[in-house]
Amino acid sequence: MSEIVLALDFADKDKAIALARTVKQEINWIKIGLELFCSQGPAIIYALKELGFKIFLDLKFFDIPNTVKKTVKTILQAKVDMFTVHVLGGQEMLTSVVAIKNEIYPQAIALGVTILTSFNQEDLFWSKMPINQLVFNLAQIGHNSGLDGLVLSPLELKNIRAKFSRLVLVTPGIRLASKNQHDQKRIATPSFACKQGADYLVIGREITLAKEPLKIIAQIKNQISEVKNG
């Protein structure tokens, strides 16, 4: 069954901790992205882990292999539970990440980012390939490099799940209603993503901007339960 990952995509530590405490009984996973990490540094990882959360560190590393390998070695000292690298970094970069992860903290889930959910076909000016085929090709590279999983939009889940059954699939772009698209372009509802094979649903603004975040979490969990029991 799909599990919710709450994306704390803001810079303020007190706000992040307060919301984490509010949802603590309903959510096990927290995503720390660029904004929160660059504002608070590694200390925010330890603070949220002390509250009992599992941590998805979503910094999308993308650089030469040696730089990424050393960076991943550093962040694994904090025992993050999941982290991201860009598959576009290439197989040499990815295999070096997998190697250092398995050496330092093999329990961590190394995820490869395919194509951001803020992109649609028109945004891929550098490729004439259909976006679903491009995601599939990147998934193949990630799989062959030994990554534990992938980050991809809900729209590509079904095809990737059918082909790469061992991979953990993490999907952002989850919206309860299409009018709440924000800057995402390839989006879907929680129930759709669950049916397509998502293991984790990364959800931020649907919850963090809500007046009553616990009610939104309940709605999302209801959709997940309906799929499980349907």
What this model shows, in words?
The chain has 230 residues and is an alpha/beta fold. The chain has a single domain (3-229), classed as Aldolase class I (TIM Barrel, Alpha-Beta Barrel), CATH 3.20.20. The chain contains 10 helices and 8 strands. The mean pLDDT is 92.
Task: Summarize this structure briefly.
By secondary structure, the protein is of the alpha/beta class.
The major beta sheet can be summarized as:
8 strands, parallel, barrel
Count of the domains: 1
Strand order of the largest sheet: 1-2-3-4-5-6-7-8
The percent of residues in helical segments reads 40-55%
Shape: globular
Q: Can you give keywords for this protein?
A:
alpha/beta, globular
Any chance you could write out the topology, listing elements then pairs?
Blueprint (H helix, E strand, L loop, with lengths): L2 E5 L5 H11 L5 E4 L1 H7 L2 H8 L3 E8 L3 H11 L6 E5 L4 H14 L4 E5 L17 H14 L4 E3 L5 H7 L4 E4 L18 H7 L3 E4 L1 H4 L4 H17 L1
Parallel strand pairs: 1-2, 1-8, 2-3, 3-4, 4-5, 5-6, 6-7, 7-8
Helix pairs in contact: 4-5, 8-10
